[in-house]
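Deliverable D2.4 — example input (structure tokens):
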């Protein structure tokens, strides 16, 4: 259930409602909007609670939410969530681009790529220090040292950083170095990991499982939100279909659908969504046109020799820069702003 209060109800009235909910052994989550305040009620509530809340001063209505995901639902939080990370706002009017390699390979590599990411105008540096791989003999990442290099590169070039976390045990160390925690497609329903991320204090980018429904995806986000972390981004990264020409099928329909169902920001991953370099720019622009709040794009200075073998879906720096110039023209048409950088790489 949710209790809806008019904004004329002061903080004291809101806390009275919260106390009435918690007295019943339930959780209360407060969401303040411009026109009203919504108090979400998590747990099995007795019917008498709704009537009690309706009679309280300042409460306009009490509504039962039928969706299994409560906190992720737009019913609970009608306005879009905007996540502010070191001044980079994700989910608002600004289009956000995350760029970088699939995996951090060495210090020189990530420093050079960070320089190109900054010069192109992207705001976030991506790179995996720990890599979940299908085969046990594939490159698995360089570990904590890679996190240190990422943090150094982000600090030097003024970039927010995002890295993938694979297990609950590594959440704390990843949170020590990176600004955003990424959950990969294979871990979307790793519930122990999701619960831990609910308490980590860092924003989380939750990739959709490659066979997950929208409902399953949003319920995975609910685990993080219910743990106390309100800063969750949803990432569409392609689903597995019968088509073999592309690595996955990028589900563009997911973008407007989940933005209707949820208030959380939506990011698109056209690199994993297609697995083909020549399709990344086109699907990036299609994602923005569909309403995505941002993109996470693989870019590598030497993709054909990348250690992960995913170079076929990574853009070269000049292709990345060209894409961002095109996004600068496209963004205003869909109500977003995006400015490419003015400085050349040589000046950084």
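Example output (designed residues):
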């Amino acid at each position: 259930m949710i209790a809806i209060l008019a904004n004329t109800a002061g903080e004291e009235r809101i806390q009275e409602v919260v106390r009435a909910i918690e007295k019943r052994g339930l959780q209360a989550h407060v969401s303040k909007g411009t026109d009203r305040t919504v108090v979400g009620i998590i747990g099995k509530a007795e019917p008498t609670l709704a009537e009690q809340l309706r009679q309280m001063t300042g409460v306009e209505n009490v509504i039962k939410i039928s969706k299994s995901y409560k906190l992720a639902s737009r019913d609970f939080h009608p306005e879009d969530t905007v996540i502010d990370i070191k001044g980079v706002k994700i989910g608002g009017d600004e289009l956000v681009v995350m760029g970088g390699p699939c995996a951090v390979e060495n210090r020189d590599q990530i420093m050079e790529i960070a320089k190109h990411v900054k010069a192109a105008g992207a705001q976030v540096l991506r790179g995996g220090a720990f890599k979940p791989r299908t085969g046990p003999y594939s490159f698995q990442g360089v570990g904590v040292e890679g996190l240190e290099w990422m943090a150094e590169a982000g600090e030097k070039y003024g970039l927010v950083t995002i890295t993938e976390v694979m297990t609950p045990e590594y959440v704390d160390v990843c949170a020590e170095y990176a600004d955003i925690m990424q959950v990969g497609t294979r871990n979307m329903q790793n519930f122990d990991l999701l619960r831990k991320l609910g308490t980590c204090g860092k924003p989380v980018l939750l990739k959709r499982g490659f066979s997950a429904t929208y409902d399953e995806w949003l319920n995975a986000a609910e685990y993080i939100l219910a743990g106390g972390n309100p800063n969750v981004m949803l990432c569409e990264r392609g689903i597995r279909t019968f088509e073999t020409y592309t690595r996955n099928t990028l589900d563009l329909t997911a973008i407007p659908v989940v933005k209707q169902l949820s208030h959380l920001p939506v990011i698109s991953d056209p690199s994993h969504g297609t697995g083909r370099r020549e399709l990344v720019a086109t699907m990036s622009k299609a994602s923005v046109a569909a309403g995505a709040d941002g993109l996470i794009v693989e870019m590598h200075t030497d993709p054909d020799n990348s250690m992960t073998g995913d170079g076929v879906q990574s853009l070269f720096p000049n292709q990345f820069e060209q894409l961002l110039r095109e996004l600068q023209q496209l963004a205003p048409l869909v109500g977003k702003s995006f400015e490419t950088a003015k400085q050349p790489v040589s000046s950084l």
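The mean pLDDT is 92.
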